[in-house]
Every structure is written in C-alpha cells, then in structure tokens.
TrEMBL record:
InterPro entries: DUF4114 (IPR025193), DUF4842 (IPR032295), LruC_dom (IPR031025). Transmembrane segments: none annotated. Residues 463-635 form the DUF4842 domain. It holds the Pfam family DUF4842. It comes from the Bacteria. Residues 398-426 are annotated as: Disordered. Residues 412-426 have a biased composition (Acidic residues). It comes from Bacteroides uniformis. This is LruC domain-containing protein.
Length: 637
C-alpha cells in the first residue's frame, strides 16, 4: 500500500510537470512574437533612408560679454540691392542658436545630406555677417581665434619706415604693409574689447539701433558739415581709430589726412594715409580673417620734415577718405605687389570719397555717443545715404581735445533695453508612407503623404519655450482608412498642450493622434501647440517618431503601425508583425525600399499610383544602392 501510494504521488508529480511543460510550450507558441520569423540581420547592415544627418557645428567669434544669434542656411541668404547687402525675403534658416557669452557654440545640427557647404549668418553688428563654410568630415567650423599669418613679409612700423608711398600722383601713402586680402600685421593693430563697462559689440549693437541698418537716410546727421572732421584743440593729443562694423558690399580702402584748422583743403593735393587697405572681416569666404570689431590703430602726425609722431599738435584737423571698392579695383594682393605697378595706373579717381568733397555730399558723418564718450564715425560708400556702410569710433587722449558742442549727439537712452521676442527655428518636410506593411507592395510611397512645419521657439539662453507643429495631409492613395500620429518623448510632451479639433493625446504611448482619417482631410491644416516652463535646452530637443495607423480604430491595441526606418513602434502596436513577411526595421528585407520616408522639402510630387518610386525618380535607386552616398538630392529632380 505504501509503495502504491508512492507511485501514485510520483505519477501525479510527473503529470503536473508534463502539464506545465506543455502549457509553457503552448504559451510560447501563442505569445512569442518571433514565432516563424526569419532572424533579421543587424540593423546597421541596412540603409536607413535618412535624408538628414547630424553635423557638428563649431563657432568661435572670439569675443567676450556678448551672445549673438547665429543662423545656418543651405543657400546664400544675402543679396545686394542698390549697393546695399540685405537679407533675402522668404528664406528659412536650417538651424538657429545663440552662442555662449564668449561667442562660442559647440553642438550638433541636422542638415539635408545633399549639402556640401552652408552659410553662417548673424545679424549682429561687429561680426562677419555671412560666411560660406564647407562641410568637411561631417563638421562645419569657423574660428576667429585661429588667426591666419599674412602672406607677405612682416614689417614692424617705426618712424623711419612710414609712410609707405603707394601712388605719388595721387598723394597716396600707407601707414602699413598688408598681406593677402588686406591682412595686417598684429604689431600694427591692437584690440579693444570694452569701453568702460560696455563691450565693443554692445556699442556696435547700439549703433545698429541708432543708424537703423537697411538703407535709412541718415544725411540729417551731416548738419552744416563743419563737425564731421576732428579738430584738435590741445597739444600732444593721441588719436586712435577703432573699427566697429562693416555692412557694405564693397571692399573699401579707408584712411585719413590732416590740415591746419581754419584753412581750406584740396584733398587731391594733401597727403592721404591708408589705415585699412580692405575694410572687411574676411577674405576668400572666411578662409582669411582680416579685421575684428575693436581693432585699433594709432594715427600718426607727420611734420614738415616728414618725421612721424604718435601725437598731434593743437591747431590741426583730421579728415577722412575712402576708395569705394578700392581694394577690389586696384590693389594687388599685398603692398609689395602693388608697388610694382606703374605710377600712372590710377584706378581711384572716380571712387575717391572724402569728408571734404568738392562738388558732392560728404561721404562721412560723425556723432557723439554720450554713453561711451566716443565720437562715432560713419561712412557712405554708395548713394543710399545710410552712412553706416563702415563704422568706426575715434578715441582721443585727452578726450576734451576733440569735443565739439556742435557735433550731433546720439540720444542717451541710459540702460534701457527693449525686450526681445523669442527666436524661432522652422523645420519643414514631407512624410510619405506605404500602408501595406509588413507585406511587400508597390512601393509608390503615396498611400499617405503629410507635409509638416515645426517651429521651435527659444530664448536667449537657448531654453525651449514653445513648439508649434503644423501637419497637412496632401495626398492619400490608400485603400484603407489610415490615421496619422507622432510620438513625443514623454519628458518633452509639454506643460500646456493645445490640440486641433479631433486630435487625441494618447498618454499611454506619449503620442498625439493628429487625424483619424487622412483620406477625408486632404488639404486641412492641423496645428498642435505645446508650451514649456523652461524645462530643457534646445540642444536637448529629441526628434519625433511619426507614423500612420492602418485601419485606425480609436483605443484599439495590437494595431498596425508604420514607422520610419529603424524607428520603434509604440506599446499599442502589434509586435508580432514586426520583422514578419517582407519587413526588416520598416525596410523591405532586400534593403531596396523603405515603408516610410522623411523628405526635407515641401511640394514633393507624388508618384503615379502603383508605380514604384524609382520609376519616376530614377535617382532613388542609385541613392538606395549606394547607401545614401550618391544622388543625395534625388527628390529634387
């Protein structure tokens, strides 16, 4: 009996064990999403069909105490209108950010992969306005602290050397030698960073407000014309000329002359001394750096014996001249090259503009800035009379030696600073989906096409304050009723969300179902606004995960979601479909076609129904086969 009982117990245990084993097998067969699936290769073996990529951006303006806004463009954002460079209307930056307090930025930006160069732009006066930069080794770098060496012999200025004769018949001399592009030796110039408690760039920024860049007529600042020049009242007056800004399209040559106060002057007969051969921030598209805001040069007085002195005696007046586009129109790459030209070669007569003109308006204005205590000098190289094509200031020791109560004065606004609205960066594109996933299909990429526009608002500390997303379905070639949605990182969903009518915030998946039926809403615009309370920086903003839901039914789980290649499905997706049939990370298993793409443009022309995308965009196949290395702009053709 005891033995039979033991056998019975053992049999019961065995039955339980077998039952558990079978149950486990059945559960695995029912719930294992990988059942009957071929193992997928590593995702890195597949091309992700990306048309944007991360590019490193490194900018160093080599300044202190100022945070300029920088913008990156895929085409030149500037044009010249009536001799004045202005920003084109309607052109959108690909990337925007503020630098830190020393004019530096290190980070990443997303750019269309077809670009091989970009344009670095800033509206800040005192900095290079627009620089063309190459994308090299997946990076864009601009560094004003990396000074180039002048490609001519270095000459230390001494009283025995200057002035250098440039053109005898023009009475044209120079205080300096220069290198390629007008580079100047570091011993010729020093650099001012601050004026009292204000940085040089702060001063330049105030001058932008005063002169109102954009062609405003500032000829009223001429007054009676008698206060433009600098009249010296005290012996042993030191005069320094400091460069502030260039907003001109010309490469102007700038300098000074002097004469006895109270006498008339014939500018053709008086000696003229070049201070800056090329008033420019850079040369060769930023490859050679020429001037920086704050560059300072001591003006010299030459006595009747030709001896140079670094101070001026009382009773002399300093005037100003420029040769409009003088560097481009006449000078060689350096002074030594130029001196080889015949003396009779005078390309400057018609381009000479002075503060003592014979028959036309003066080319300069001077105004007193009470905040800094300096005299601001503005130049006009064309005809729009903005008088801010070039900006300098004059620093005198003692300052009282050049004060003139009749000189126009800039209104003193104190420390008043107008609040600036948040900046916004605008990103646009087109999303195209195939809804027959995970089965292979016609790959016409036109079942659902949605255009999007994303505006990211951020403050001067680069903190994101608001994001506005606009989505517009523009084409639907699908048989099914498909919804369009996008998933957002849960930490960046927003403190306040405003949804369009019919949209749903799906908290469980951190998604917004923008429209439940794309087919019925072609042309309708859906706007989603999210506001933030300073929770994260712009460079911490994560990308979206856009997708469509095939045969959408609200609240349904185990749904069919079609995402961009190598993007993850949400928790509501039917996981068993992932990697089944022809799918490999939302790419067909052969790697030739995606099930969804993000095209960095608006106005993409859809392929004719049931025609593969490469039949009408032949560059697509080359692009895909080359893993994105060739035909990068296939969608533009």
């Amino acid at each position: 009996m005891k033995q039979n009982r033991l056998i019975s117990i053992g049999t019961f245990i065995l039955v339980l064990a077998l039952s558990g084993l079978m149950t486990g097998c059945m559960e695995k067969d029912v719930y294992d999403p990988n059942r009957k699936k071929e193992p997928l290769p590593d995702p890195d073996k597949y091309f992700g069909f990306e048309m944007r990529s991360d590019v490193r951006l490194s900018v160093n303006y080599d300044i202190y105490g100022f945070t300029p806004l920088i913008e990156i463009y895929g085409e030149n954002p500037m044009e010249t209108v009536e001799g004045t460079p202005i920003k084109k209307e309607g052109i959108e930056a690909l990337f925007k950010t503020y630098t830190d307090n020393s004019g530096k930025y290190e980070g990443k930006m997303q750019l269309p992969t077809y670009l091989n160069k970009v344009y670095l732009y800033t509206a800040t006066w005192g900095l290079p306005g627009c620089i063309e930069l190459e994308i090299k080794d997946n990076a864009v770098i601009f560094d004003m602290s990396a000074k180039s060496n002048p490609k001519t012999k270095s000459v230390t200025r001494a009283s025995s050397d200057v002035p250098y004769l440039v053109n005898k018949s023009q009475n044209l001399y120079s205080l300096c030698y220069w290198g390629e592009g007008g580079q100047l030796d570091s011993q010729y110039m020093t650099k001012e960073k601050n004026i009292g408690d204000e940085s040089v760039l702060d001063l330049a920024d105030r001058m932008k407000t005063f002169f109102n860049k954009g062609g405003q007529d500032n000829s009223k600042l001429l007054g009676n014309g008698k206060t433009i020049n600098i009249s010296i009242k005290e012996d042993n007056t030191a005069l320094n000329l400091i460069f502030l800004n260039r907003s001109a399209s010309y490469n102007n040559t700038f300098g000074y002359y002097f004469y006895k106060t109270g006498t008339s002057v014939d500018v053709d007969q008086v000696r003229k001394y070049i201070i800056f051969p090329n008033v420019s921030f850079d040369w060769y598209g930023g490859q050679i750096l020429i001037l920086e805001s704050g560059n300072k040069v001591r003006l010299l007085y030459f006595d009747e014996d030709g001896q140079a002195h670094d101070t001026f005696p009382a009773g002399y007046t300093v005037g100003w001249f420029l040769y409009a586009d003088g560097f481009k129109n006449g000078y060689g790459n350096n002074l030594e090259d130029y001196l080889k030209l015949p003396d009779l070669y005078n390309p400057y007569d018609s381009n000479l503009r002075t503060s003592n003109p014979k028959n036309n308006m003066p080319a300069f204005v001077s105004v007193k800035d009470p905040k800094s205590g300096k005299t601001i000098l503005g130049a006009e190289d064309g005809v729009n009379q903005s008088y801010c094509d070039l900006l300098f200031y004059v620093d005198a020791t003692p300052g009282s030696s050049i004060d003139d109560p009749e000189r126009p004065s800039i209104p003193d606004e104190g420390d008043k600073e107008e609040p600036k609205p948040d900046e916004d960066e605008n990103v646009t594109g087109t999303l195209a989906f195939e809804d027959i996933w995970p089965s292979g299909g016609d790959y016409d990429m036109n079942d659902v096409i949605v255009e999007y526009e994303r505006k990211v608002y951020f403050d001067k500390k680069n903190i994101v304050t608001k994001i506005v997303d606009e989505f517009t379905p523009v084409h639907d070639g699908a048989t099914y009723v498909n919804a369009f949605a996008y998933q957002i990182d849960a930490a960046q969903i927003g403190d306040k969300i405003t949804l369009p009518e019919g949209a749903i915030l799906e908290k469980e998946t951190s998604s917004i179902i923008v429209m439940s039926n794309a087919k019925q809403n072609i042309g309708n615009k859906y706007v989603v606004t999210r506001e933030f309370n300073g929770s994260f920086l712009k460079n911490q903003l994560l990308s979206y995960n856009p997708y469509i839901i095939v045969k959408y039914s609200q609240g349904k789980r185990n749904r069919t979601e079609v995402h961009l290649p190598k993007h993850k499905a949400t928790a509501y997706a039917n996981q068993s479909l992932i990697g089944s049939n022809d799918d490999a990370y939302y790419i067909d298993r052969k790697g030739a076609y995606p099930f969804a793409i993000d095209i960095p443009m608006l106005g993409f022309t859809p392929v004719t129904e049931r025609n593969r995308i490469d039949s009408q965009y032949p560059g697509f196949a080359t692009w895909a086969k080359s893993m994105g290395n060739d035909c990068k702009d296939w969608y533009k053709k």
